[in-house]
Structures are given as C-alpha cells and as structure tokens.
Amino acid sequence: MSTETILYIILAGVVSIALAVFMYGYRSKQTGSLRWVFGILRFITLFLILLLIINPKFKSETYTIEKPKLPVLIDNSASIGELGQTKNVSAFLQKLKENNELNDKFDVSYYSFGNDFRESDSLSFDEKNTNISKALTSANELFKNQTAPTIVITDGNQTLGNDYEFSSATFKNPIYPVILGDSIQYTDLKIEQLNTNRYAFLKNQFPVEVILNYSGTEPVNSEFVVTQGAATVYRTNVSFSENETSKTLNFTLNASSVGLQKYSAQILPLADEKNKTNNSKQFAVEVIDQATNVLVVSKITHPDLGALKKAITSNERRTVAFKKPAEAMSVLNDFQLVILYQPDRSFASVFAEIEKLNKNTWIISGLQTDWYFLNGAQDNFNKETSNASEDVQAKLNSNYGTFAVEDIGFDDFPPLHTEFGALTISVPNEAMLAQTVSGIDNGNPMLATMEINGKRDAIWEGEGFWRWRARSFLETESFQSFDDFIGNLVQYLASNKRRSRLEVSSETFYYNNNPIKISAQYFDKNYVFDNRASLNISVKNTETEKQTVFPMLLRNNYYEVDLNSLPAGEYNYTVSVANEAISSSGNFTILDFNVEQQFLNADVPKLRRVAQNTNGKAFFATQGDLLINALVDNTNFQNIEKSEQKVVPLVDWKYLLALIVLALAAEWFIRKYNGLI
C-alpha cells in the first residue's frame, strides 16, 4: 500500500471522528451512553464509506508446492503382443502405480500411443501402427515448460512417422526408455519394403522395387518369388553374407488384364528362421484401360503450373500435358479436361475449338489474364476490369454439395493475387471457395463450378496457389491433402458422367494397416446436399458370406464410414438411404499386411541413443526397481514452491458493505427502541 493511500486513510479517520464528535458531541440532544453509542456507530459508517471511496488495494500471497511431472508413454501396438511382452508391460505399470515413494515425489500420468497419442484408460495392444515420434513430440509440447522426465515403454520399432531419434533431439526433458523385448540377433530374412504403382495401364509394364534384408553371420542363399494365383510371374536367386545384408531388386511385370491384379511376393525362408511372417508380402495393382488425360494450355511460365502437375499426377490414373495456345489446337480432342491458365487473345482459336468440341474446361485467372478478351470469349461469367490488383484469401463454403470437399486449412493459406473488380457468374453455379479480404467476404467467388447440359466448367480466380501446396506440406509434412483437393476437382471436371443423387467414393483395394474409409454424398430432388439423411452401408464378405451393416457418419458436406475393423478379404458393399429407394453398390479388397509382425526383437541400440542424447537412461522391462530408484534418487527432480501474489481492491471485499449496513441498521433500531423516531 502506498504512502499516499495511508495518508488518505488517516485523513478519512480524522474526518469521520470530527463529524461524529460534531454530530453527537455538540449538536446532539442525547445524553449519557446513547451519545457514545450513536457517535461510535456514525464514525464506523462514515469511516467505512470513505474507505470505499479511497478503495485501497491489499496484496495477498499464497504458496503452493508443485511436484515434477512424470508422463509414462505406453506402446499399445500389436508388435508388443507379437514379441510376447504384454505381461511385462502390466507388471511394470503395476510397480509404478504401487510405489508410494515414486508417487509422492512425482505427479504421474499415463498415455498410450500407436497410430495416435492419447491418455491411457486401457491397453489392447492391437493398434496396427507405431508412431513413437508423434508420442514424443506430443509429450514435449504438453510438458514443455515443466520438469517432466519421460518414461517410454516400447520395443522401439516404429512403423509410421518421422525418425524418433531425430525428433527426440529437441526434447527438453530426459527420456527413460523401458525396452520391451531382447537384444538377441536371430538369423532372419525379410522383405523390408516393396514399392509399386497403385495403377497400371493395360498392355503396359509396371515397375516393382523390393528391398530385402538379412540378419545373421553366415553366408546364405535363397530365392525371391512373385506369384499371381498359381502362376509364378518372377523368380530370382539371392545371396547374403555378414557384410552384404541388403539387396534391392528392380523388375517389371506385365499388365495383361483389366481390373484388380493381386500378387504375392516371398523370399523363401531359411531352415532356422524364427519369424517367417516377414518373408512374404501381398500387393496389388489396378489395371485400367486408359488414363484420364488433362491438357494445360498456357502461354507463360509460372510456379502454379508445376504445382498443378504434381497434384494431378500424384494419382497414376491421370496424365498431364502442357501446350502453348497455337500447339493445343490439333490435340484438344485427345483430352477429357482442358485447363486454361491466364488466357489472353492468343487463346481465341482454342476457345472456338473447345466450344465446337464441347470440352470441359477449368479457367484459372491471375494478374496476366486479359479480362477484356475473356469476358467476350465465353458466356458463363463476367468481370469488371480495372488496372488495380488485389490480394485475396479463401474461405470454404461448408454447404458446397457438388462433390465432397474437406477443409484443408483454406483460411490459413497465403493470399492469391487477382485483378480488382466484381466477378459475376451468369449461369447456374456453386461456389466452393469465396474470396475474403482481411477476413471479410468481398462477395466474389474464388473457385466455382458449373454444369450445363452435361458440360462441366470451373473458374478459379487467383494466381499463386503453389504457395498453398507448400504451406500444406509445412503444416502436415505431406502434400497429400492439397493434392487430393486438386485431384477431386479434376476428377469431377474430367467426367461427363451424369450426376446421381447418391455418389459413393471408394478405392478398389486397401492395405489393412492403412485407413479403410468409404465416403458418400446424398442430394435431395433439387440436387442440394441433404445433411438430414440417414445413410447405412451393408458390407458382405464374398468368401464367408458374413454381412455387416455400418452407419455412415456426417462429415461437413459428406458421409463417411471407417471399416478398419474388417479382416482381410474381398467384399461387396451397398450404400442405402433410409426411407428412400436409392442405393449404390460396389466392391473392394482388403489385403492382409500386418507391419507389426515384421519384427524379431527390440531396437535396443536406438532406444539407448535416445536416452543418452536426452541425458536419460535405458532400462529393460525387468529392471523396474532400478528405474524407480534412479528417478526417486535423482536430485534434479525436486518439488517447486510457487508463490502467487494477488492485488485485491477493498471495494471487492463484500463484508465491508455488510458492516456499513449493520452499523446503519443498529443505529436505526436503537433510535426506534428509544422512541427517537
């Protein structure tokens, strides 16, 4: 409290005493004890009212003891069960929970990880992937400003995500790995990786790359075989030694039949191999009769064109060709979709030929677009021309219903450059993205689609979306979300298929260690997306005849179902709408590949390096007591006393008001009792 405030309080006391003495010492008619009682009550009332006006502030300080945190991250993947370590995990966790000394010193919390990182309520050891890097990064973010030594209970075998040894380099707390499994090196041959295209074209050859690994000390010989049904389509001899432990095979296979072609790759096991599951792997290729051909017509060179090519060709079913306007005239009929990038008057003959051939188009405008020409070259839209430029950002129309669009973070993407002016679309259309300036919708569409008499067109107003692809990679460490967005748009624009009220999207085949999702869109009779419908999918295993019905869940402007619970096999499905005679059928195949069965033992060296790099220490699951003692005895992990200082103004003290009311009430009752009122 400041000196000035203290002086005000003293002055308030003096004034209150003076007024009380004046009112009941000189002017009062009462005598004896009543004069004193009224004077004291009046002094209290006046003094407390003046205190409220002065409103002094008081400081209060509270002290709390904060324990150091001890997050325990538990590997919940299937490899723990494959290595026979589930009992060791349970026994180790029981030791942690029952040790009073450890729990008195630390605030212990438990988390599990597999595909994702979450608080642990129970362990199933059935997750199909292990992402140790994500678990460590999440724990680092969760406890980044706290003392939090971290226990990681795992076999160290990661199947998904970044290298966790690299991720742990920025970890701010020591890591104590608890190693599940042994360090014994068994003799083993395995298929480390198999790479191939998802799609191939009929009567072509498609490449296959296989990486084979050997663990052992003696020279060995084996044979690598690829079969399709009962037929052997590729065979070669391979040899390994202690110094030559890896081989990469590159070969091609013939795509001779249309449809899903399933293959089995195997390296013949040695007589003394412990794990023979990792010697074989199934893979599949969908053979299609022809590709979706996309033509990009542009007179200029721009980074957007590279982003378009990468995004479109990320799906092997699509090809992209680039032509200048003069070169495009003779080949337009070879393509299902023509993308016109920033057209000007040199595109006049291209527009005339497109109208003649009734080709689907996607027009992308920017700062080099000749809008005087473009306004007259087509009848779908018109833009007010100006010499000023404008930077605009995108906002997704959540009610867009032409096809399913996922929000990939459009609001956070860098602005695109366009010419200032109002864009008016004069035909029936649906805006997918709207333009915003400083977060405010300016009334112009950024991306809109149109469909007239079976011909599909789109207008994208804005250049510089190559930055969107780069930002998407920075946010998700993958180009997939942006590429899928462009791919879905191209798929819609390149098709002349008549629109149905129920559109279902699925893959021909899935690997059972990856997400297995099928999405659908349902439209009412006016072809407006209906989010009130109830969609179900009936899935039937063609071998066992077992049929299962799943509800499809609403996700913004589409419905989706996750079928990861299904075992490997071939399935037929039917998506139906409740209370409507509308359905759509298809089929898919789930290929069996359990990546968690590929390991023989724990990755002990890497876990030890992680511990060393973070000033921690690695222990085996049977060394639980040693780990607990190391944590309890470590003087770096101490309780922290925290003080919190609060400044409380007197006006917030409710009891003061109660005292004023009490003093006034007491004076009134005394006067009433003595007949003075």
What can you see in these coordinates?
By secondary structure, the protein is of the alpha/beta class. It contains 16 helices and 36 strands. The strands form eight sheets. Strands 16-15-17-18-25-24-23-20-21 form a nine-stranded mixed beta sheet. It has a six-stranded mixed beta sheet with strand order 4-3-2-5-6-35, with helices on both faces. Strands 8-14-13-10-11 form a five-stranded mixed beta sheet, with no helix packed on it. Helix 1 packs antiparallel against helix 2 (33-54) and helix 2 (33-54) packs antiparallel against helix 16 (654-673). 32% of the residues are buried. The chain crosses the membrane at residues 6-24, 36-54. InterPro entries: vWFA_dom_sf. Keywords: Membrane, Transmembrane, Transmembrane helix.
Question: How would you sum up this structure in a few lines?
Answer:
The protein has 16 helices and 36 strands. The chain has 677 residues and is an alpha/beta fold. The strands form 8 sheets. It has a 9-stranded mixed β-sheet with strand order 16-15-17-18-25-24-23-20-21.
Provide the low-confidence segments as ranges.
none
- Structural class by SSE content: alpha/beta
Q: Whole-number radius of gyration?
A: 37 Å
Give the fraction of residues assigned to helices.
25-40%
Q: How many strand units?
A: 36
Number of helices: 16
The strand order across the widest sheet is 16-15-17-18-25-24-23-20-21
Distance between the termini: 42 Å
What descriptive keywords fit this protein?
single chain; six-stranded mixed beta sheet; nine-stranded mixed beta sheet; 677 residues
